[in-house]
Specification:
With about 300 residues, the chain is mainly alpha-helical. The protein has one domain. Helix content is about 75%, strand content about 5%. It contains 12 helices and 2 strands. A two-stranded antiparallel ribbon has the order 1-2. Helix 1 crosses helix 12, helix 3 runs antiparallel to helix 4 and helix 3 packs parallel to helix 11. The protein is globular and about 50 Å long.
């Protein structure tokens, strides 16, 4: 059941939000209310229990930590929202997830920018391109068969995991100087346009792909790549969030509470990564990739 909801959430709901305005508010009698008490109203179509709200906030904090270190927090936060809001359209879970994620990622990006050797101008250029590309990808989401794409993504993630595992030195070198124009252009194309569009059209593993692409194309170490990826990820999240907000499919009250925990997790994760360095990021990267592959496999074949 959960796998079916995750599949439907990852298979074009962003495009649906772009094509339609908000779902009309239901009457009081039609509002979704879980009978456990106390009950918290989080939006026009859903109420949740206090226990559910607490669990969602904890999930948001853990997701913020994962996103800050290496990306991939959505593999925890989005399923948590789908489980916690079983009676609303998955579009609301997707929109709320993006609203929460952008806050924690922004905190992590600022933390990294202050203490890590980040090329801020390059990161902002990549982020601006990714924002536009993610919005474009969201508009095409409904036209793509995600059931065909997901096995290909799993293969790509497994290849990434094997490559990183078999090459311990990958991403451990000291960052170089300013990248050449050719490498910067390649990064704009692959990272800004390619991965930004991918985040809008599908999404899983965006942060991981960003880190790997930045290491491979710009010869960054894993810590610097993770720091730069946060700026780009803010752009992709904002691009997708704009589509959801325009469609009225964000539970802003719930998002506000979860965002506080997500920001706290992002702050802690960024400081841990800065303190422990690229070796720590590498270990978390491998764990997150394994989790992403398991999540995608469950979405594809789970019952």
């Amino acid at each position: 059941m959960v796998a079916d909801r995750v599949r439907s959430a990852d298979s074009g709901m962003i495009g649906a939000a772009a094509r339609s305005r908000s779902v009309p508010p239901r009457s009081v009698g039609e509002q979704i209310r879980i009978r456990d008490h106390p009950v918290i109203e989080v939006g026009p179509v859903s109420d949740i229990t206090f226990t559910t709200a607490v669990l969602l906030c904890i999930a948001a904090g853990l997701a913020g930590w994962i996103d800050a270190v290496v990306g991939g927090g959505g593999l925890l936060q989005l399923p948590a929202l789908l489980i916690g809001l079983p009676d609303v359209s998955p579009t609301y879970a997707l929109g709320t997830n993006k609203a929460v994620a952008v806050t924690g990622t922004s905190i992590a990006a600022v933390t990294y920018a202050r203490r890590a050797p980040v090329d801020v101008r390059l990161a902002l250029r990549l982020g601006a391109v990714a924002l536009a590309a993610a919005g474009g990808g969201a508009l095409f989401a409904s036209a793509v068969d995600k059931r065909v794409l997901q096995p290909l993504i799993m293969v790509a993630l497994l290849a990434v995991a094997a490559f990183v595992f078999l090459r311990p030195q990958f991403g451990t070198a000291s960052p170089g100087g300013t990248p050449s124009r050719r490498r910067a252009a390649a990064a704009l194309l692959v990272v800004g346009v390619g991965i930004g569009f991918y985040d809008g059209i599908l999404g899983p593993g965006t942060g991981t792909f960003l880190v790997i692409a930045l290491v491979a194309l710009l010869h960054m170490n894993l810590l610097t790549a993770s720091a730069t990826a946060k700026v780009v990820n803010v752009g992709t999240n904002l691009g997708a969030l704009a589509v959801f907000a325009a469609g009225g499919t964000v539970l802003w009250r719930l998002a506000a509470g979860m965002a506080l925990f997500n920001m706290a997790g992002g702050w802690v994760g960024a400081h841990m990564a800065l303190r422990r360095g690229s070796g720590f990021v590498r270990v978390v990267l491998l764990v997150v990739v394994a989790g992403l592959v398991a999540r995608l496999a469950w979405d594809q074949w789970g019952t």
